[in-house]
Amino acid sequence: MSNSNNLTPLSDEDLMSRFQEGSDDAFVELYDRYNRRLYGYCVQMLKDKEFAEDLFQEIFIRVARKRHHFQGGNFSGWLFAIARNQCLNTLRDAVSHTSLDDVGVLRAPDQELYDETGEILKQAIEKLSPEMKEALVLRVYSEFSYQEIAEITEAKLATVKVRIHRAKLRLHDLLTPYFADRYSKQSSTI
Fold first, then answer.
1. Residues 70 and 122 reside in one and the same domain
2. What is the distance between the alpha carbons of residues 169 and 90, in angstroms, rounded to a whole number?
3. Do 143 and 102 sit in the same domain of this protein?
4. pLDDT score of 25
5. Domains contained in the chain, number
6. What dihedral angle (degrees, nearest 10) is formed by the CA atoms of 100, 105, 107, 110?
7. Helices 12-20 and 24-46: crossing angle, nearest 10°?
8. Residue 185, Cβ neighbours under 10 Å: how many?
9. What are 13-34's pLDDT values in tens digits?
10. pLDDT tens-digit series, residues 134-153
11. Cα(37)–Cα(35) distance, integer angstroms
12. pLDDT at 98
């Protein structure tokens, strides 16, 4: 019988320390805490549910293998730095192994995941610079603080704040024509 219930009040860092000492229950608790956020981050970064699922599993395998590399500090920042590096490596590999015939397949929208508005938002996010996109995804979809994002991306806190602010402004500029056009059409049919 698992004793993971008594691990729930422990901090991430305490759980990681216990995992480093050999507690598999501590690892399970960390997995339970982060699996949804981490998977969501991978889906947002890779735009492919199957790649994201594979990478998501690989990230937790890497955490288990490299558990002794964690030297304390912010566990979630350490975990998402691993995830970020894995996503960037996967994206680089995909670009270097993609023929021109495959480009349309890689960019095909996932209709199961997004409704029409979600699809428009996804397309707008894709138009952001990689730095703005990454910061926005970490903030909005993974719910990291600005400080945590700075640690994960190894950027200055002020830089992270500027990237997120500019990303929001850019999304506003990209989405305003779509929604203005849509609402003007709806009001003319009423």
1. no
2. 29
3. no
4. 93
5. 2
6. 180
7. 120
8. 9
9. 999 999 999 999 999 999 999 9
10. 898 888 878 888 888 998 89
11. 6
12. 39
pTM of the model: 0.59
Token code pair at residue 186 = 């709806």
- The Cα 53–Cα 59 span in angstroms is 10
Has residue 183 been placed in a domain? yes
102 plus 144 within the same structural domain: no
Mean pLDDT of the chain, nearest integer: 79
Among 88, 108, 128, the domain-final residue is 108
Which residue, of 108, 128, 157, is where some domain finishes?
A: 108
Rounded to an integer, the average pLDDT of 163-172 is 88
Q: Which long-range contacts (CB under 8 A, 24 or more apart) does 137-141 make?
A: 137/41, 137/44, 137/45, 138/41, 138/80, 139/164, 141/40, 141/41, 141/44
One domain, residues 32 and 123 = no
For helices 24-46 and 75-96, the axis angle rounded to 10 degrees is 40
Does residue 7 have a pLDDT over 80? yes
Which CATH number covers residue 164? 1.10.10.10
pLDDT in tens, 74-120: 999 999 999 988 888 877 776 544 333 333 333 344 444 335 666 77
Query: Which tokens hold the place of 84?
Result: 């970020």
Residues in CB range of 27: below 8 A, 6 or more apart: 15, 19, 64, 67
Can you tell me the distance from the alpha carbon of 175 to that of 169, in angstroms, rounded to the nearest whole number? 10
